[in-house]
Design a protein that fits this description.
Layout (H helix, E strand, L loop, with lengths): L8 E4 L8 E8 L4 E4 L4 E6 L9 E6 L1 E3 L3 E5 L4 E3 L1 E5 L5 E5 L15
Antiparallel strand pairs: 1-2, 1-7, 2-3, 3-6, 4-5, 7-8, 9-10
């Protein structure tokens, strides 16, 4: 289980986009990378096709290694370390390592 999931609010902790936050669009599990909304913009040269008859240069999000992102706690405005545990119902859930609080939604922590 990765420490981030699709839809989570994350902060970049290393690299040229350090300190920026965004929502996880995709997780590339085989490459251990994540695509974050609005970050690591790359330019791709595309041939004309039916979908894009003009062709040209398209700008889109690139990927960042998953170890360079951390879950973002919007309430406290800081990055958090994520752990896992089995709850009373027998389901594996993500928790904040520092407080032990269960993480339900992206950017939100239940106390």
């Amino acid at each position: 289980m990765a420490h981030v999931r699709q839809g989570d609010l994350v902060v970049v902790i290393a690299g040229k986009e350090k300190g920026k936050t965004g929502k996880v669009l995709r997780i590339l599990t085989k490459k251990d990378r994540v695509v974050i909304e609005g970050l690591m913009k790359v330019k791709r040269h595309t041939k004309p096709s039916q979908k894009n008859p003009q062709g040209g240069i398209v700008e889109r999000e690139g990927s960042i290694h998953i170890s360079n992102v951390a879950l973002w706690n919007a309430a406290e405005r800081k990055a958090i370390k994520v752990g896992t545990k089995v709850n009373d119902a027998g389901k594996r859930v993500r928790i904040d390592k520092k407080t032990g609080a269960e993480i339900e939604n992206p950017g939100l922590i239940r106390k």
